[in-house]
Amino acid sequence: MSEPNGRGDRALLEVRDLTVHHGQLRALDHVSLQVYPGEVYAIIGANGAGKSTLLRTIAGLHHPTEGSITYDGKDVTRVRPERRATGGIAMVPEGRRLFGSLTVEENLQVGATHARKGPWTIERVYELFGWMKERRNQRTAQLSGGEQQSVAIGRALVANPRVLLLDELSLGLAPVVVQRIYAMLPEILAAGLTVLLVEQDVSQALRVATHLQCLLEGHTTLEGRPSDVTPAQVEAAYFGLAGAAAGPPGEESEPLWRGSTTSSRGS
Amino acid sequence: MAWVNDIIQGILIGGLYALFACGLSLMFGVMKVVNLAHGDLAIIGGYIAVGVITITHIPVLWSFLIVVPLMALLGYVLQRTVIQASLDRSILTTLLVTFGLSVVIENGLLQFVNADSHSLGVGNAIITSSFSIGSQIIIPYLLLLIFAVAVVVLLGLQYFLSASRYGRLIRAVADDKEAAQLSGVDYRHVFGIAAAIAFGTVALAGIAYGMYSQFSPTTGTDTILLFAFAAVVIGGLGSLWGTLLGGVVLGVAQAIGAQINSSDQLLAGYIVFLAVLVFRPQGLVARGAQS
Lengths: 267, 291
Hints:
The complex is a heterodimer of chains A (267) and B (291). With 267 residues, chain A is of the alpha/beta class. Chain A is built from 9 helices and 10 strands. Chain A has a single domain, classed as Rossmann fold, CATH 3.40.50.300. Chain A has a 6-stranded mixed sheet, with helices on both faces. With 291 residues, chain B is mostly helical.
């Protein structure tokens, strides 16, 4: 489609007209996005907006009924999840999904089993999260939620991905813990990662994102740089409130509103 | 003293039951597959041993060197094809498919081998003899050998699962196969490895049974599968040492039952089995008790 303004020459990850069904339910309806190298691309939206479905489909855990996913110039729509992972798309899944009967270190070792070459090693993860090395022989079930989330991030990092998918990092964690985890992001990005994250906590997402997309009931309702959108627009796009938007700001060329299911609200 | 002797025999035969059970336990623990063809596969192992010995004339005791790899290969192939295809549909489908596999194997053997009983004569004077402690306790070397093999297999499995790279992957996949995929792990392949190991132990169980007793095409379902289930349930699913304990408890219960009345041997085993189901359904050794 159109070449967006100043975001690099070629998208690392491109999703085109993706439609995904859960049985009869249309969870995603022709959603598109382009993630450029080095970006922190945040997808926000209410519960049931289709955010996690989008991320899981990119990781290969759901099969789209329509549309395509291109990674590094190659169509990966039909590629198995484990092949995408070894190709450089790593995901920190919602709810952390650690291997509960394995120790911290074993979780990281599984993550590193089919790792690409790169800067991340288990040692480096231990440096990033200072507490982890001493407790590496504990089972992850004995860790707090925030600690488990750190192990889940570490498990994804040791695979040395190019794109890191973060699904609802803040879910079930205390705000202080969430801030501490997001504070790690710059250090993680410094190693040359691209991040696509899904977040219900909009203020947290806006703080770290370089690009923003809002979903509502499977549709894109807003897309742009955080600096180009107003809080009122975000609110309107998030809740699907008609007329709350003040109109497109500046030179933003993407349509801010698509679809007009305005009477219904996010579940 | 006769009681002591019977209990000792029961403990030793428990090793054979544990050998029956550990493959069943592993397949369920990792893939959530209840393999109803388990006993028939053990019998196939026995028949392959008979064939291998007839053709190559190697000693019975060494036949496992050929039978175990063959069965492991069969396990990998079956898992990657038939069992995986049924797993992709539902857990329930695996029950139907393995039940069907059991019927096919049993009738295939009746058709192509015949219904006669076979056994694997060890032909080694030491192994077939026994030693006695005092005048009443007589311990056959063969039972002692089988018990030792069971312990070695369980120890080896334990070590493999806890310390090796593939063991780690097997545990990870058993925990959460989707999360494993996100780490780049092809869980189907890991399932295949686990099935290969399980079938390897099944082969050993079949050979051991053939050396201990006679077997025919129906032995798989009417003896091995039932005893394996009983041992797994008594011991507790997912625990390897529980499996050994389950086998031993079953063996001792049968020995005591036989002592009371020779027709009560099987009954006594199943009474213990039912008692465990009622009073301690998680088994004597609950899952997670071992690392």
